[in-house]
Amino acid sequence: xxxxxxxxxxxxxxxxxxxVIHSKPKCEHLAASMMLGLPDVxxxxxxxxxxxxTKRGKVWFVEALFPSYFFARFAPANSLRAVRYSQNVIRIxxxxxxxxxxxxxxxRLLREExxxxxxxxxQVGMNVGDTVELTEGPLRGxxxxxxxxxxxxxxxxxxxxxxxxxxxxxxDATKLLTDHTPRDVFIER
Length: 189
What we know:
Layout: H1 5-12, E1 17-23, H2 28-35, E2 42-44, E3 47-54, E4 57-64, E5 69-74, H3 76-84, E6 89-92, E7 94-95, E8 98-99, E9 101-102, H4 104-113, E10 119-121, E11 131-134, E12 143-150, E13 155-162, E14 165-172, E15 176-178, H5 182-188
Parallel strand pairs: 3-10
Antiparallel strand pairs: 1-5, 1-6, 1-9, 2-5, 3-4, 7-8, 11-12, 11-15, 12-13, 13-14
Domain NusG-like N-terminal: 17-110
Keywords: Transcription, Transcription antitermination, Transcription regulation
InterPro entries: NGN-like_dom, NGN_dom_sf, NusG-like, Translation_prot_SH3-like_sf
């Protein structure tokens, strides 16, 4: 088969399949929702919701599970051009000139992992031995190692080096940043 012929077959294929869509950064859910207005196009954009400590305190964030990517099910013969030129879409992921579909089973397993939700809450916790950074108070910006956790993750003792000596201090867990990212926690499950 000639290299350019495979894409021609897919362009005229009237069988719907799932494809990965590359979108503009932070616009995955917008592009997916805009695409729902297209006839015979289904989209799936799994997202995670998590809390992160900031200078303003704990703030909720919602981000795409796969930053700048989501899934769309469509028949290339009917919808390729409309999907490709939909708002906030950069491209349909392909290898060379060949569009690559994602199996229905992969999407089913992903939906199962997301527990049927489009936005899943992920709790980013701390464990003994984790490196953490203070986000508030006079020691803000200093790093330490979690020594123990008390009161159901509300109070944490950390070992810090300060003024040339190691000290064990107890702080409120909400004033600490961990090295864990929500995606790490989601993948570890």
